[in-house]
Amino acid sequence: MCIVPKEQLEVFRGEDSLTLYQWNMKIAKHYFCSSCGIYTHHQRRADPLSCGFNLGCLENVDQTTLGKIELADGASFSVIEDV
User: Fold this and answer.
1) How confident is the model at residue 1 (pLDDT cuts 50, 70, 90)?
2) What pTM, to 2 d.p., does this model score?
């Protein structure tokens, strides 16, 4: 995943094939392809002004030429908001 400001994310084609998934407080928005199921992009609850997108969904991008890409441990992210 890469992160950009929300207003910089643009879906060029296939938007009509995307499925929105939300849960809990319904603030975060997670989008998947309704045909193949790939996770395309999301708007996070913790930072609704930015969007993460799946770099593998971009055409003509060779990920091996981008240098070191930091990995995130998504399993350790909190899904429960402290009240």
Assistant:
1) confident
2) 0.74
